[in-house]
Batch of 3 targets.
Target 1
Amino acid sequence: MNDPCRVTPADRPRPSAPFRRPEPPRDGTVLRVLLWTGFTVCAVVNSVGNSIGGVGEGVGLVAGIISGGSIAALIVHHYARRRS
């Protein structure tokens, strides 16, 4: 005779899976923040270095090149994210 209230091993709840933390979104937020920070700092160093003159001009030139590279990387990152 079948007992509808009887709990069999197949009816028991299975143990839950171990808790997994959700992965942070990989949308490039950290990269964007670093590029904007690098651009801002290098733009300020470029302006100050070129206004001082002397050795500051060399420092300003390097900072300007890094600043331009940061802007180029930001543009590439923007269009790469836009396509996906």
Target 2
Amino acid sequence: MFKLLVSTFCLVSFFVSSMAQHAPNIGIGPELGLPSGNFANVSGVGLGASLKIDVPVSANFALTLHGGFMNFFGKHNYLQNVKDFTYLPVKAGLKYQLSESFYAEGQIGAGFPLNDGQKTLLVWAPGFGNVFKISGKNRLDLGIRYEGWTGKNDQVVVLSQSSNTKGFLGIRFAYLFNFN
């Protein structure tokens, strides 16, 4: 798993260094996940961190690679004792600049489990965000997305669970490094 992530990031770094006309951005920061629908029955909140690389291919389009760590804390009470959902989500996608700082993006990938009894899940995430200039080349990226993790896990049995998708509102606040 770790070798796959390192290999992917090395490949993207090589690709990025070969693109002379557009400078890539790398963002690193914390993530917050707010479960929705039936997923809120088994987890109240998720916390994580991620690294995201944007490789511009034109003035308004960029390819993205997003990898990180996400843990959704299982609910514990007298009726249920749900274990945490801990995953390494890896996604690739497209980002479109709607204005100088506002963007929309879509990503798809896989969520690799770190806990026993969990399976690899299909991950998909449409979202939007805004880049805020702080000073000079320093910038912050605030992204909001709906993210779905689709697939079955043996670990969770909820009476009202009629879907195999664990959906949540994802909020990412990252510091951007520009290699210009």
Target 3
Amino acid sequence: MRPERCPVEDWLGFLGHRWNALLLWHLQERPLQHQDLLAALPGITAKVLGERLKALQERGLVQREEFATFPRTVAYHLMPQGRQVVGILDQFEQLASRHEGPAGPLGHRFG
């Protein structure tokens, strides 16, 4: 019999995905369009960005909004639960800045 997965472990795994936390971080200020997010995240492909945005939507963290324009305009914005997660990420950032030296233990920084 397989033990149930811990919800905390599940969330940490989800947020630990290379792009999920960064996408939430960039969406905290204002809604952004697909091309804005591509520009903000060097190294992400359009395909991966679409997959990550869909995963964030499925978790109830991000909402996709279509506007009745021509050509069609789509923007993504944080949902209330997404804002809660960004608050937790902010706490992690504060913790890291208080407890790290010139560089983290692996020699690099988040973001």
